Fold these 2 entries.
Entry 1:
Amino acid sequence: MNWVELIAGVLLLAGAAFVLVSAIGVVRFPDVYMRMHAATKAGTLGAGLMLGAASIVFGELGITVRSFVVFFFLLLTAPVAAHVLGRAAYYAGVPRWERTKLDELAGRYDEADGTPGELGRPVQRGDDIPYP
Amino acid sequence: MILFEGPWTFLSVATLVTMVAVAVSILVASLRVMRGPSLPDRVVALDLVGLLAVSVISVVAIATQQPVLLDAAIALALIAFLSTVAFARFIEWQGENAE
């Protein structure tokens, strides 16, 4: 067994573990925001580890660059997609988990058109909107 | 699958285990796509399925020794991102009756 095969196999198994954990999290977590947390971070890391394994196995410059481009693209787009989707879910009124303690956005944004609320700026602690 | 035709090595066993794990992950994630109570739940699970498809492509590229398949991974990642953003705009536009 040579070192390249060992490292690539370990990367593949680690990626499989992260991907499996993220899929289980998407099914088991109680509301859409927590599911987004599981899918975005653990899933991106798992796919990135598998792409790293591919770049190690082939060991050519062009393939390494290609798989790193894919990973960089995933790192770039996953937070953007999660933010857009979370914002859409919040304004669509998707219910949160019943034991959620804190909703810092409540009352600070105009729910009709998605613009900042009457204060028109990020609200600090101690402003006139009561902290939930 | 070229990797599985020779004798068993650590890499081929790891590739096989990874294929099984990713397949199980796709099944579990599509359970959420079918069951998800709201449309954003389904879109989150579909985004994860797209990410898992990228992982499948890289694992199959290792198993068949065909690095050309990684080009398909680039296109698939781009399409998954664009479809997620389009779905998010649709949900925001539909409001509460999106289902």
Entry 2:
Amino acid sequence: MPRHLPLLFSIIAVGLGFLTAQQIRTVSFINHTVQMQEGQTLSQLVMQAERGNLQAADRIRADRARLVQLGGGPNLARIHRLVARVRPLAALTPVTGSGVQVVLHDAAFARFPNEPAALKLIHDQYVLRVVALLSVAGARAIAINGQRYTATTSIYCAGPTIRINDVPYASPFVVDAVGPPAPMMRALQTDPDILGWSQLVYIHVRRLHDVEIAPYNGLINLSLAKPVKIGG
Amino acid sequence: MWIVLVGLALGVLIGLAVPNVLPASFASYLSIALLAALDSAFGGIRAGLEGNFVPLTFVTGLVSNAILAALLTYVGNKMGVPLFDAALFAFGFRIFQNLGAIRHHLLDRWTHSRVKLR
């Protein structure tokens, strides 16, 4: 091995070591820079979106003011009155008043020997029957477990749960109704179906002085039912 | 051997101590040059174990491989041909081959030494 070789090797090693360290530092620097750039880009995007939102809000305010100017007067007031009258009917406003509360829940044990297990459960038809009886007796607003009963409400069994407005609920089911308490109580207490089911599951009716029923808060989709133009 | 390790450590220290880093656009070329150098280093170790290490070949190979790899990557970038990937694959493959050969040689040596002891 020639004498100058160790020196040459060590020089190469120094060079390689230097370059490796520089490379590691450069890469970490680049990563840092990219992160910084990403952060800056994101903050710019957020600011841009905020500016856009502000502009949109301004436009909406201006459009609303223009609408009031254009269609203002007796016509608009009439529409407002109509909407105010229709909204409670469409179950879109919270309502309060005297009424009844019906609680239905599954039986904890079989009431009769050899009773099928299905008879221990609350079924959709029980809830539907209660809702129908309350409507007949003059209920003005009904909610089942807080789900407002509307023109498009569906109540059906889905496995161990009952879906009300497409939201699954398990027993117990609490049906609140605002309306004339006495006729509603009578309707429920004298109905042969309810009396029969009460033998199998827990159905409890009580009169309430003050029932508060929340509005319907789901999607409203009447796309399949087109309004008919009257006189058109 | 120790002088190489000392040189390497010294180089790393200098690299860390220098206040500036190389421009970011150099990073990919430097990385491929380092990979080429690493390949040559392992090749050198392998040749040493096999007993056919030629210092001049090693040194020229190391330097020219590193420079050529960086240069080819640069040219490839200019031409839109990803030669970086090709070099990465080639050098990576050779490094693992060399590492395998080194391991085999070391294992052979170790087993021979145990046979001699008996």
